[in-house]
């Protein structure tokens, strides 16, 4: 390493350390984030500036592309070809050879690796409550996952989780785990306004699940890892790193949130009200990205409902439409990923990525995964519904290799058309940035896999 670089690293690191522990109150989040971003680039020896992302404002001169005719051609990596060029022709080679290659690429270049040692999480049941959702009685449990911080007591991590199951259940029930927000009757004033994300033309998702005899759970991502770059030296990532900055292949927030979901599943395995063999993961937008990352890396997740995950989720990253890699790698969003990902918006280009989103969908195989989007007219083009559809299409060969059914078409469907015959499903509902109007379709599709679906 060059002397100047070492000095720069030292200066930035000492400044960050100072800010974190004695000047945090005076430093803005944005400044700390920019410093952390710069530090990561310096660690990697990247001097090239970051290319600018596109604007989400269609009237801006740098507006993101929203015209199909202007998408430049690209070539996707083949999920069924080993790095040595040999084609993967059977399931055994997928599991033993190709899948590990893809996992390694995603971990090293995009989402980061889990640390070798992560301290244990102990779940504490804080409160239970008998209540109702719609006209259905439910049992709610409010839990806290306390992470052992004996190795670095300066930081603590307590994961917030809420679980709801039908009160009259006669046995363990399947549960949909959502990355979201908890409006706890024990922590927030009663009568708080409903989350507008929930507003939809069909009954509330919770009510729909409970009416089927299923349960739901909500895990709060920010209780695991902050949603900004300044927080990377705190939360579970900071705790494991003992308050130090990340290395280029250390995990980002998406992987950390996904790790938290795995800890919730550890808890589900101990709760007799829950059938831990039937757990689905659901999330919207950045939490849709977290949901597919969780499913890709956690085999105990049996079904997925990936809402408007866009870039960094199911959308093909090489496809220049809507949000770009350059946006994801900017100071506003780079913390979702590992440091190495920043390279693809500075010294490298998206075409250099060793993997793309179709292979993230493929990591979920053979488990059923439902890719959801709103209508472009209402939701806008930023999430790139077609890019997510293509992520689903190009994962197809892996699903079929494993004896499952792919989307069944490569033709982009009309809004409202449910492509739900197979283990990869896709639907654009007629609404905006929500999973709301896709819940009934998702549930009907999930009933096929989970069975035991009550109708009343
Ligand atoms: C921004 C971001 C998206 C993200 C979204 C959200 O629009 O660019 O990638 O999905 O926020 O989480 O709401």
Beta-strand percent range:
15-25%
**Any idea what the CATH architecture is?**
3-Layer(aba) Sandwich
Task: Determine the N-to-C terminus distance.
Answer: 68 Å
Strand order of the largest sheet: 1-2-3-5-4-6-7-8-9
Structure description:
With 456 residues, the chain is α/β, with parallel strands linked by helices. It has one domain: Rossmann fold (3-Layer(aba) Sandwich). 31% of the residues lie in helices and 16% in strands. The protein has 13 helices and 9 strands. The chain has helices at residues 3-23, 29-43, 91-111, 205-211, 235-240, 253-268, 286-297, 325-328, 357-363, 376-379, 385-393, 396-401, 439-450, and strands at residues 121-133, 136-147, 158-166, 173-179, 215-219, 274-284, 303-307, 369-373, 424-428. It has a 9-stranded mixed sheet, sandwiched between helices. Helix 1 (3-23) runs antiparallel to helix 2 and helix 6 (253-268) crosses helix 7 (286-297). The longest helix has 21 residues, at 3-23. It binds alpha-D-glucopyranuronic acid (GCU). Alpha-D-glucopyranuronic acid (GCU) is lined by residues 285-286, 310-312, 323, 327, 382.
Summary, kept brief:
By secondary structure, the chain is of the alpha/beta class.
């Amino acid at each position: 390493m060059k002397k100047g670089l070492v000095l720069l690293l030292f200066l930035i690191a000492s400044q960050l350390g100072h800010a974190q522990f004695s000047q945090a109150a005076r430093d803005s989040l944005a400044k700390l984030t920019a410093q952390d971003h710069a530090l990561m680039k310096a660690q990697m020896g990247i001097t090239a500036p970051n290319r600018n992302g596109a604007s989400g404002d269609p009237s801006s001169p740098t507006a993101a592309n929203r015209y199909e005719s202007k998408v430049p051609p690209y070539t996707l990596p083949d999920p069924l070809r080993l790095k040595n060029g040999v084609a993967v022709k059977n399931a055994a080679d997928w599991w033993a050879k190709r899948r590990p290659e893809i996992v390694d690429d995603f971990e090293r270049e995009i989402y980061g690796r889990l640390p070798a040692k992560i301290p244990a999480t102990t779940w504490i049941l804080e409160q239970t409550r008998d209540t109702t959702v719609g006209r259905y009685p439910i049992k709610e449990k409010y839990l806290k996952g306390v992470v052992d911080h004996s190795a670095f007591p300066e930081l603590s991590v307590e994961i917030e989780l809420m679980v709801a199951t039908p009160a009259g259940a006669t046995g363990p029930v399947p549960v949909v785990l959502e990355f979201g927000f908890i409006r706890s009757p024990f922590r927030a004033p009663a009568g708080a306004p409903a989350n507008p994300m929930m507003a939809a033309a069909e009954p509330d998702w919770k009510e729909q699940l409970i009416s089927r005899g299923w349960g739901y759970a909500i895990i709060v991502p920010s209780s695991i890892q902050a949603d900004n770059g300044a927080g990377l030296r705190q939360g579970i990532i900071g705790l494991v790193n003992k308050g130090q900055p990340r290395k280029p292949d250390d995990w980002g927030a998406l992987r950390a949130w996904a790790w938290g979901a795995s800890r919730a599943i550890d808890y589900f395995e101990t709760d007799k009200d829950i059938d831990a063999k039937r757990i689905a993961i659901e999330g919207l937008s950045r939490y849709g990205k977290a949901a597919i990352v969780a499913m890709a890396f956690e085999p105990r997740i049996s079904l997925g409902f990936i809402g408007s995950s866009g870039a960094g989720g199911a959308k093909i990253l090489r496809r220049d439409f809507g949000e770009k890699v350059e946006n994801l790698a900017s100071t506003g969003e780079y913390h979702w990923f590992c440091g190495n990902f920043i390279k693809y918006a500075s010294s490298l280009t998206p075409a250099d990525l060793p993997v793309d989103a179709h292979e993230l969908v493929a990591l979920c195989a053979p488990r059923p995964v439902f890719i959801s989007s709103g209508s472009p007219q209402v939701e806008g083009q930023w999430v790139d519904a077609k890019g997510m559809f293509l992520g689903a299409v190009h994962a197809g060969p892996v699903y079929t290799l494993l004896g499952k059914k792919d989307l069944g078409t490569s033709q982009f469907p009309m809004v409202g058309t449910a492509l739900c015959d197979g283990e990869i499903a896709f639907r654009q509902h007629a609404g905006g940035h929500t999973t709301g109007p896709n819940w009934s379709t998702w549930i009907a599709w999930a009933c096929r896999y989970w069975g035991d679906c009550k109708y009343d």
